[in-house]
Amino acid sequence: MASPLSERAYKSIKQDIITCTLEAGEQIVQSQLAERYRIGTTPIREALQRLMRDGFVQSIPRYGYIVSRVSLSDVHEIYECRQVLEPALAYLAATRATEAQLAKIKRTAHFDYSYNEDNSSNAHVHNAEFHRAIAIASGNGRLYDQISRVLDEMTRIFFLGIDLGGSADELNNNHLKLAEALHARDANLAKQIMKDELLYSKQAVLDALMRRLATPEHAMQL
Asked: Range of 135's domain?
């Protein structure tokens, strides 16, 4: 079991990676992180080893750690994981969710999206909260743990600053339809809506990434 300081270091570093405060490809200097978080180097080292197992950092011999880069193949793999796990989670949530859990899902279903280069991801943090609420409502802790990590990786991609453009309204509508299906306890419909949402979301994200990579200032980011 990780020590409290190691756990705090892990959460702090992971949050900075997800939000791109620590950028992809950036070298991680352990002494600087220890100073930033006011934590000793031993908990920092333990946290980095854990983050390496999670895929958020890489160890380079005779160089140290760097923040893992994100590739288009990573995006495909993330969505493959989501397409396997989340329809099942939606099905289970429709049959197992408490009334309080359904109320939270309904509250988090709607998000207001407006793209801004410097702060484009607040809506997507809210989006992850919606999907986590469904996972919690499934009543399966192991499935929740698996999808939670995938959602962290997904949120990091949004913090790169991609613009979903006109796709956001359709994604928002899918959330609302999914919340209604869950509230109606229609497990098969909830499963199908989740499948449809993920197919649409994947294409929207890939299109947005390709538009971003087509610009000279971002051509080498991914």
From this structure: 72-218
Q: Is 32 helix (H, G, I), strand (E, B) or coil?
A: helix
Q: State pTM to two decimals.
A: 0.87
Q: Which of 52, 67, 82 is the last residue of a domain?
A: 67
Number of domains, the chain? 2
Range 104-111, long-range pairs (CB < 8 A, 24+ positions):
104/133, 105/130, 105/133, 105/134, 105/137, 105/179, 105/182, 105/183, 106/179, 106/183, 108/133, 109/175, 109/176, 109/178, 109/179, 110/172, 110/175, 110/176, 111/172, 111/175
Q: Cα(82)–Cα(216) distance, rounded to whole angstroms? A: 31
The model's pLDDT over 58-94, given as tens digits with 9 standing for 90+, comes to: 999 888 899 999 888 999 999 999 999 999 999 999 9
